[in-house]
Design goal:
It is a single chain. By secondary structure, the chain is an alpha+beta fold. The protein contains 3 helices and 4 strands. It has a 4-stranded mixed β-sheet. A hairpin with a 3-residue loop joins strand 3 and strand 4.
């Protein structure tokens, strides 16, 4: 399992939203837990992450407004 909780203030730095980072993640683990900010959900970035994971055979669950502040993304390889 890899847990991602990367922020500068309320923003996730762009290198962690790009494909090379995602490719490294999916090759390194079967389970990803990502603490995603509400700001990330306000545009297409979180949608793109979910689509990328699904395209790479991960089942993705998204829990919105956890503790009123964050979205929680849980992805599990479907093997």
């Amino acid at each position: 399992m890899i847990i991602i909780d990367l922020y500068i203030d309320t923003n996730v730095p762009s290198p962690f939203l790009d494909s090379p980072f995602g490719q490294n993640l999916i090759s390194a683990t079967q389970v990803i837990l990502c603490n995603a900010s509400l700001e990330l959900n306000s545009d297409d970035k979180l949608k793109n992450i979910r689509q990328f994971l699904k395209k790479n055979n991960f089942n993705v669950d998204n829990y919105e407004k956890v503790n009123g502040t964050n979205n929680l993304l849980i992805a599990k390889a479907s093997n």
